[in-house]
Amino acid sequence: MPKRIAIIAHDGKKGELVEWARRERERLARHQLVATATTGRTLQEALGLEVACVRSGPQGGDAQIAAMVVEGRIDAVIFLVDPLYAHPHEPDIRTVMRLCNVHNVPLATNLATASMVLRGLEEE
């Protein structure tokens, strides 16, 4: 059964995300993907995946995804955070992470965990 997966990646992680998504393309294509604007466009252009896009992270996209988590409309979040760079929208980043924990939604912040989450969703 297809799941709804939210994907967010900071600019410094988008290249890694695309490489990972190429390897996981077949699995990703089985699910409904939603992403922040730039991340979603990057995946659409690089892999031809269908991705529903919300606003960019700094313009409220992280908050939109957080709201979807609260509403039960997201089954997992892949949020590739660049830990070596300060982010002006840090409160929104923390909100997504906190709400995933509050609502028991799997959250991957690195590619190793993202692969495990993706495989785990297929077992449900």
Automatic annotation (TrEMBL):
Sites binding substrate sit at: 10, 14, 56-57, 89
Which reactions does this protein catalyse?
Answer: dihydroxyacetone phosphate = methylglyoxal + phosphate
Q: Which NCBIfam families match?
A: MGSA, PRK05234.1
Q: Provide this UniProt record's keywords sorted from A to Z.
A: Lyase
Q: What does the record give as the active site? A: 62 (proton donor/acceptor)
Enzyme Commission designation = 4.2.3.3
Spell out the molecular function terms from Gene Ontology: methylglyoxal synthase activity
Annotated organism of origin: Thermoflexus hugenholtzii JAD2
Any GO BP? methylglyoxal biosynthetic process
Which GO cellular component does the record give, naming just one? cytosol
**Function noted in UniProt:** Catalyzes the formation of methylglyoxal from dihydroxyacetone phosphate.
Q: What is this protein called?
A: Methylglyoxal synthase
Enumerate the InterPro entries for this protein. Methylgl_synth, MGS-like_dom, MGS-like_dom_sf
- The protein's superkingdom reads Bacteria
Kindly indicate whether the keyword Lyase belongs to this entry. Answer: yes
The family classification in the record reads: Belongs to the methylglyoxal synthase family.
Q: Where is the MGS-like domain?
A: 1-124
